[in-house]
Amino acid sequence: MNVGILENLPIIxxxxxxxxxxxxxxxxxxxxxxxxxxADPLVIENLKKRGLLLYYDLEGTEHEYPFCWRCETPLIYxxxxxWFIKMSALKQELIKNxxxxxxxxxxIKEGRFGEWLEDIRDWSLSRDRY
Length: 130
Known about the structure:
- The protein has helices at 2-6, 36-49, 91-99, 107-110, 112-118, and strands at 84-85, 123-124.
- It is mainly alpha-helical.
- It folds into 2 domains: 1-79, no CATH class; 84-124, no CATH class.
């Protein structure tokens, strides 16, 4: 994802909320509307036939795929539009202000809270989880 952003590649949202390949893209006719895991072998075979697959050894590859611990369905990793607060831009000011606070107990300043500020990340306002 980071390389794509760096190279100004488009972000393509090709899977809907049910994990089905959406049909408004120029995708293979035989995979439109299929659950993304069922589409895998068809896409791989198509790429092989067209000479677009550099290397893929389905038989010799072991790969753990993440599943939901509740319902045991495959998890979908896909790009989503999100809003963030750029906390990383405020890091130095936050650390400066933290150093001026008389924390009780005092170890919070450089301990739990201070460490959190050192590793501060941008905050997502667009959480989409159950």
